[in-house]
């Protein structure tokens, strides 16, 4: 890259960060800026923390475990717990560092179980993307973490091979790995728009989750997203999702421009992040 | 801190960073943004790198030494060498992480032995501080790394106690630690304005260094800094300085607002950093 391109890229990123934080501050969000080095007490490392640790840059110093921030939501939840923050809506912007690479994240979190408040946060992110990033989100994919969890055992959920085969929709290999009449194979055989009915028929105990999916589908349509799909076969990108999770795409793109979902902190919560 | 204060602080820092980078880009600087995680090959770690390592967050992973950026100049020099960058003037802004804490740095580097080009960089930093940070630098302290090095042995230079005593100008304790008729004690006994003459009389081989100090003193006065002092007893803040180094203060402040100096990369170089 020549000087001009490099300079423009760096200035553009900084400007986007600032625009995003200003935009959200005006809408009543609390801004946070956390140290990139996180410390952990051995006594209070959660199972979720442990599971992420081998993907993180981490080291010990003086008996204390240190790790670089690898995900904003995760860091904010931990910080919020530690300092008993009252903030209801939080916005952040900055780098995250995983062993697999360094990426730029901007996003928002809200700590409430109120679905309409959660949906307002989604709508704020879409508004920013349209106004400031000139990105037109025309595809939304919605899933619910409970559905696949019902269809697969815990071991299967955590098996990277099953993960990959489900993501690839590899019916042949999955028939082999699970069984020919496994409901996951059944799901792959019905049309996408019939998936919910298929699940409702077999697992009446998932009525609430199916209802939730429909509520969010309705909201996303009202936010003028042309193509809204419920896809029960999407594996969550983050292990902390507890409820619906959403991926937002521009036309003809395979990588989502933004993603987020419901999770549980001390209260129910919802967050959306824009991939920079 | 309440929401408004916190939000304002975060937005102000982001804006300053962007203003600084824009200001310098317009003046022809190349902007750089380096990964906060640096990796080192065991075969090519320099003595200078080693000396800084115990103050840095560092860890090994797969046999590779990793460390967090702890000083921009240091990281830029290493990066420039590795990728054979041609850039003559570089500007940066961002966090640095030491075990002792996290600070925000913005600064510039120039890779040239041309003193007037080096002084232009100093002048650019002063212009930014005045225009954008509304900081009025009224005090400049100039030193040269060769002077104390001539007066003290290598062991004494690296002795933290001697370091502290010289910084504190503790004549009694130093008389004890060195000797009553040590030239460092002699220097403390003459008036600051007579220090150079005292050194010139005893160490004629330092004529060039003394001349350099006078050239920079003259430049700083021309840049409208009211009080310019040459102080031969200042210990360099960075071990990489090879030549003059400068600290800039506002009136009645004990911590410098900016500091910098000459060092050697593949070529001679000069850098100034603003403490955020």
From TrEMBL, chains A, B:
Source superkingdom: Bacteria
One GO MF term: catalytic activity, acting on a protein
Residue ranges of every copy of the Class II Histidinyl-tRNA synthetase (HisRS)-like catalytic core domain listed in the record: 16-272
Name of a matching Pfam family: tRNA-synt_His
Name of the protein: Class II Histidinyl-tRNA synthetase (HisRS)-like catalytic core domain-containing protein
Origin organism lineage: Bacteria, Bacillati, Bacillota, Clostridia, Eubacteriales
């Amino acid at each position: 890259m020549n000087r001009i391109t490099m300079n423009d890229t760096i200035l553009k990123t900084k400007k986007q960060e600032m625009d995003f934080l200003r935009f959200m501050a005006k809408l009543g969000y609390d801004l946070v800026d956390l140290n990139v080095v996180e410390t952990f007490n051995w006594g209070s490392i959660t199972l979720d923390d442990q599971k992420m640790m081998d993907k993180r840059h981490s080291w010990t110093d003086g008996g204390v475990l240190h790790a670089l921030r690898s995900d904003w939501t995760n860091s904010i939840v931990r910080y919020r717990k530690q300092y008993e923050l009252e903030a209801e809506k939080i916005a952040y912007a900055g780098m995250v560092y995983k062993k697999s690479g360094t990426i730029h994240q901007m996003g928002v979190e809200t700590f409430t179980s109120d679905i309409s408040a959660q949906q307002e946060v989604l709508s704020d992110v879409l508004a920013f993307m349209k106004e400031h990033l000139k990105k037109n989100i025309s595809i939304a994919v919605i899933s619910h973490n409970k559905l696949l969890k019902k269809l697969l055992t815990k071991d299967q959920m955590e098996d990277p091979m099953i993960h990959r085969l489900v993501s690839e929709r590899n019916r042949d290999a999955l028939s082999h790995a699970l069984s020919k009449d496994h409901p996951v194979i059944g799901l792959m055989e019905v049309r996408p728009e019939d998936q919910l009915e298929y699940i409702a028929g077999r697992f009446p105990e998932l009525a609430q989750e199916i209802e939730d999916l429909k509520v969010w589908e309705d909201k996303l349509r009202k936010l003028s997203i042309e193509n809204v799909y419920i896809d029960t076969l999407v594996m969550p990108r983050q292990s902390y999702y507890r409820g619906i999770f959403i991926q937002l795409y521009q036309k003809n793109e395979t990588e989502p421009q933004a993603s987020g979902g419901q999770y549980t902190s001390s209260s129910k919560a919802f967050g959306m992040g824009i991939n920079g």
